[in-house]
Design brief:
It comes from Maribacter arcticus. This protein has 182 residues and is an alpha+beta fold. It has 1 helix and 14 strands. The chain has a domain at 1-33. The longest helix has 31 residues, at 2-32.
Length: 182
């Protein structure tokens, strides 16, 4: 009786393992059927412009941007052939960040941070021009310069605060449709 139970357990284990092997083989076949390539675009001088991985003819992952001297000067992130996620643009000469930006479903819609050439933050803002967003500007020494908000279309509105290079509030301006109220 025990032998029969062992034989049945052995057969069940083999059947399950065979099914698992079949499942793994199917997944490997599916992976092998993915077409993986690289898309490279070029500038007029023949230098690379951008290089990005293609999976099944769709851009995926980081697309690296190049200068006229074939140096990487930034990247944009792709998901399923669409710009999605953060990207980075560098100054050509210093290789310090110039912009950090965000795309959502192919639209620049999220955070944009711009930098002075010395590396300090110049501006921090929401890139959503379709609704209310915020804007912070900094002096080159890193001290806050202005705080305000924009409305649909990117026009300033509401109360904006302006500071000198020591961070002392110098003036307050009320905006409506991008123009100071009178």
């Amino acid at each position: 009786m025990k032998k029969i139970v062992y034989i049945i357990l052995l057969l069940l284990t083999c059947c399950k393992t065979t099914g698992l092997v079949k499942e793994i083989n199917t997944e490997i076949t599916e992976l092998k059927s993915e077409k993986i390539d690289t898309l490279t675009t070029y500038q007029e001088n023949g230098a690379k412009n951008m290089e990005v991985l293609l999976i099944n003819d769709k851009k995926e992952g980081n697309g690296y941007m190049y200068s006229v001297h074939n140096e990487i000067i930034g990247f944009k992130h792709f998901e399923n052939d669409t710009l999605n996620g953060f990207g980075l643009s560098l100054y050509n000469d210093t290789k310090k960040p110039k912009y950090i930006f965000q795309y959502n479903q192919g639209k620049m819609n999220g955070t944009i941070i711009s930098f002075y050439k010395n590396g300090s933050i110049e501006r921090f803002r929401s890139s959503d021009i379709y609704s209310v967003s915020q804007k912070l500007k900094f002096h080159e020494n890193g001290v806050i310069k202005s705080i305000g908000q924009t409305q649909k279309g990117g026009n300033a509105f509401g109360t904006w605060l302006f500071f000198n290079e020591k961070g002392i509030l110098e003036r307050t301006v009320e905006y409506e449709n991008g123009e100071p109220k009178k």
